[in-house]
Design a protein that fits this description.
- The structure is a single chain.
- The chain is built from eleven helices and two strands; from the N terminus they run H-H-H-H-H-H-H-H-E-E-H-H-H.
- The protein is mainly alpha-helical and 203 residues long.
- The protein has a single domain, classed as Rhomboid-like fold (Up-down Bundle), CATH 1.20.1540.
- It has a two-stranded antiparallel sheet.
- The longest helix has 26 residues.
- The radius of gyration is 17 Å and the shape is globular.
- The chain starts with a helix and ends with a helix.
């Protein structure tokens, strides 16, 4: 079975299992202050598998399914089933953790800051797929025309950066950026030539 489908299944199961259990959900949230002062490092992983609501869950899992499935299959074709699957799992989990580094630095002494969701991990997968396939076309729900990946990527990062600076929503834009940057870094570790290919696609 596809590793992407396994991750989606586990995430959906865990998200629904704590939906009406606020105390249990609280123990899984990403809370930098408790990680720093109480050593609750499990939150850096557990928070990836829970979501605020159904829309949050569906958006993340749909994004993971389409681009994650593509990238997983490419990893398997190039590196074989075992190593390809390990590469994808590392990308997802380490991408989720990497996306929390900057929020942790910003909010480590704020006892009220909380976040949750797979957005950072999914962002790592999305940008790994974009950087690996810069000329592929992406379709967004609200834009009926295809957008080349090498155009979508920079626009998305710029939007997330300005949204983070504006700071008027409860969306963790900094986590999205952190995940995206890790996805790019991960691809460059696997194949440094992909960086050159991406810029060749742009110019």
């Amino acid at each position: 079975m596809s590793l992407v489908l396994i991750i989606i299944g586990i995430t959906v199961l865990i998200s629904f299992s704590v939906e009406n259990k606020p105390d249990q959900k609280e123990k899984m949230l990403f809370i930098p202050n408790r990680i720093k002062h109480n050593g609750e490092f499990h939150r850096m992983i557990s928070s990836i598998f829970i979501h605020a609501d159904l829309n949050h869950l569906v958006f993340n899992m749909v994004s993971l399914y389409f681009l994650g499935n593509l990238f997983e299959q490419q990893m398997i074709q190039i590196y074989g089933v075992q190593l390809g699957s390990v590469n994808f799992l590392l990308l997802y989990l380490l991408g989720g953790i990497a996306s929390e580094v900057y929020p942790f630095i910003r909010h480590q002494d704020d006892p009220y800051y909380r976040s949750l969701g797979a957005s950072g991990a999914v962002s790592a997968v999305v940008f790994a797929a974009i950087f690996w396939n810069p000329t592929m076309n992406l379709y967004l729900f609200f834009i009926p025309v295809p957008i080349p990946a090498y155009i979508f990527g920079p626009i998305y990062l710029a939007f997330e950066y300005f949204a983070m600076k504006k700071g008027t929503t409860n969306i963790a834009h900094d986590a999205h950026i952190g995940g995206a940057l890790f996805g790019i870094f991960f691809v460059l570790l696997l194949n440094p030539n992909k960086g050159l290919e991406f810029f060749e696609a742009i110019f």
